Amino acid sequence: MEDNIVHTPVISIEAWRHVFKLDPDKDISDDDLDRICLSGTDAIVVGGSSGVTFENTVELMSRIRRYELPAALEVSNLDSVVPGFDAYLIPMVLNTPNPDWIVGQHQRAIQQYGYMIPWELIIPEGYIILNPEATAAKLTEAETGLTAAEAGAYAQVADKLMRLPVVYVEYSGMYGDMELVHHVRKGLSHAQLFYGGGIRTEEQAREAAEAADTVVVGNIVYEDMEAALRTVEAVRLTP
Fold first, then answer.
1. Which of 1, 116, 179, 203 is 20 to 30 A from 151 in CA distance terms?
2. pTM of the predicted model over 0.85
3. Helix count (H) and strand count (E) of the chain?
4. Was 173 annotated as part of a binding site?
5. What domains lie within the chain, and their CATH numbers?
6. Is 114 marked within a binding site?
7. Any signal peptide, and if so, which residues (predicted)?
8. 62 annotated as a binding-site residue
9. Rounded CA separation 239/210 (Å)
10. According to the annotation, is 197 in a ligand binding site?
11. What are the pLDDT digits (tens) for 70-115?
């Protein structure tokens, strides 16, 4: 390896309060992307549950890279992994009976590509998927009907046994149970709690910011840009 290669430093997710999640399989104009990236959000996460390819991920990354804010790729399949992001978020679905989504695909990826993986940029996430209608829930066979106690126990497995840096409560497409999210957060000692799902109003953004460490806003970007932008200040003004 040549000495003049510069490695991207590890980014600090602890500073992330508000994150926009952009889907490579969905269209966003240059003007709207400009507004998103200059909105004051803390980071951009690129990822989606379906239709994500190497080509559309490269295209979106190249557009985001014009702006000075952290950009992370949430890896949903190996074919869409693109070099050049500041970090790579690796989901491990905790509430599935199918071990393929916990360690199986991860093991195969490391066996095949381990020599290429920039380990200093890898951030594993313990996912708890709770919307039964979500594409991710159906794909991973997630057991979504959890009580707050059950979800909290999964989160503590990630936090205290697996020592994962992120626990991600995901309702993907619907606004979730904030009492459950509060309960999950109270049981965490080390992990940062991400919440994502169904945020469409400033009030929902504030409630989510009170319950979680990091609020992820996604679908509303493609439905109502003005509403999406208002979530940034709502989260920032929440203690």
1. 203
2. yes
3. 8, 8
4. yes
5. 18-237 (3.20.20.390)
6. no
7. none
8. no
9. 7
10. no
11. 999 999 888 889 999 999 999 999 999 999 999 999 999 999 989 9
